[in-house]
Amino acid sequence: MQDIVLGGHRIGAGQPPFIIAEMSGNHGQSLERALAIVDAAADAGCQGLKIQTSTPDMLTLDSREPDFVVRGANQDWEGQSLYELYTTNFTPFEWHAAIFARAQERGMVGFSSPFGIEAIEFLESVGCPAYKIASFENNWPELIRRAAQTGKPIIISTGMADLADLERMVAIVRAEGNEQLVLLKCTSTYPAEPHNTNLRTIPHLRELFNCQVGLSDHTLGTGVGVAATVLGATVIEKHLTLDRADGGPDASFSLEPAEMARLVQECRQAQQALGSVFYGPTQAEQKSLAFRRSIYVVQDVAEGEILTADNVRVIRPGNGLPPHVLPQVIGRPARHSVRRGTALNWDMV
């Protein structure tokens, strides 16, 4: 399975997980706030900053017919028409270059989720280095195909997709000769509940499709992202806002900057902790061996005196014979006199 290099950052096994801060509509239609979110993501240690490229008309109709009104998805969206929701959520096209430039200045790679073919054409014009296909678009072959044709890394969220859907989208990307594919396990509820997240799917996805696999996470907190890292996720995407109290369409399931920093730190620690299959003392544990138990002489013993439970004991430190040989020691004579507090060795028995 090949690693992917995105904006100078390597994505793959053995690397720290690539953490993406999703801005979505948390900019509140303010470019100043959008740039502040970029800075917050960089300060938190994220490697990627993602926005969304759409217009309301690209996504839906301006209608309040029942099919076009949100019911039961998220309390902040309840009762809005889809058109109204996407009007507050979209990122103006004229902001993209400034957002991407700020991300690059801060050492991150900025990229986007396109929500139409025309969005990809625009993003190509501003040098977008990768494309993220959102869960709600992952059943649209033409969008996936056009993104794959750019030859750039393609990240696809798998929310709601069954195996047939997954096989279709992966085949579309690879038919274009594009092997730079990341699948993100995703639960498309907002927020998502941990018990609906099914993280065991991550290694199964990797085995099925032989590609990098990560998590697009809408749960609250950082625990699910850390658990995904342990299961081999090489990419973690999480929504970021400056302050949930400010509200907005995605605020309720977004992390604040301090939480994002904790996610980055804990995911990196989790990846480091995986290590390899290893038994015995590590190099770092060598000095701690002295604090294990071993067999010591606890009373002065004369030459020829029988060793007993009274004059030898298993105590700390660990410089004497190992405890498991105590039955072989008890009842044998001392080869020579031994002082109290001496670590026992076979030359003394």
Automatic annotation (TrEMBL):
PROSITE patterns: AFP_LIKE
Limits of the AFP-like domain: 294-349
Pfam family for this entry, one: SAF
Gene3D superfamilies, sorted: Aldolase class I, Antifreeze-like/N-acetylneuraminic acid synthase C-terminal domain
PANTHER family assigned: N-ACETYLNEURAMINATE SYNTHASE, PSEUDAMINIC ACID SYNTHASE
Protein name (database record): Pseudaminic acid synthase
High-level lineage: Bacteria, Pseudomonadati, Bacteroidota, Cytophagia, Cytophagales
Gene symbol of the encoding locus: pseI
